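pinned: reference chain
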Amino acid sequence: MKIGYPCINQSLDCTSSRTFRLASYSDERLIETVQLNLTCLQRILEYNVQHGLYFFRLTSDLVPFASHEVNQYNWQEHFKEQFVQLGNYIKQHNMRISMHPDQFVVLNSPNPQTVNNSIAELVYQASILDLMELDTTARLQIHGGGAYGDKGSAIDRFADVYHTRLPESVKARLCVENDDRTYSLLDCLRLHELTGMPIIFDNLHHECVNNGEPMREAVEIAASTWQPDRDGILMMDYSAQAPAERKGKHVQTISEELFHDFLVETEGLDMDIMLEIKDKEASALKAVAVAGSLGRL
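pinned: its structure tokens
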């Protein structure tokens, strides 16, 4: 089991998500910003290794406007050596990496431009993992999208776009996550049956939207969709409900007791856990201590 957190390290004085306004785009500005982002990413990875955090989600903003038509610069070639070095560090320390495109990535949208933009973003993010020369256990996770009044048709539309529009570089890494409003674990299972995508499991989303599956059974269902040689072991997102907030809102800091109980409930199931908790690495460090005390690491 590996435990990690997404995108931002709050203990360091840098960010790998620096960007700028579209109106001020220039190749020079892009090069400067990407260099700063990659330099900070190296520092974040080093921090994580030093603290036993071997699962990390890269920011979508590593290369600003990478999937936008304004960006015609060959940043892939410019930063090729740096990406390889980052990938070597990741592989040397047996880290697990993921990326999670923003909510505008919707493959089953009825709007053709939204689908086109979504595909362009997925191609960009897959290229980051390819440039790092990471194998296909490094994944891209997305949500099922909207139901648009007919979830069955929306699921079929997703599968059609998957098979007819996505390049192999994206399909090799793509997985789908159950969400907190529309796509339950069983909906994602249907997408898996149609596409072969593994399911990233989110425990809090499952608590919000489910078909009555107990938590352990739900984890087992999701884990069964992963082919270890190709996909690696199950990736999952872990959080808890923030008190007195809207349903599905992530908690500010981890409840070590709840996390302990989740690990006990899923004893014997191997998975890598991404903590979607607002204080980032602070909670991840607590989670590592809890998992270590149970012999799960």
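why pinned: Strands lie at 3-6, 55-58, 96-99, 139-143, 174-177, 199-202, 234-238, 271-275. The chain has one domain: 3-293.
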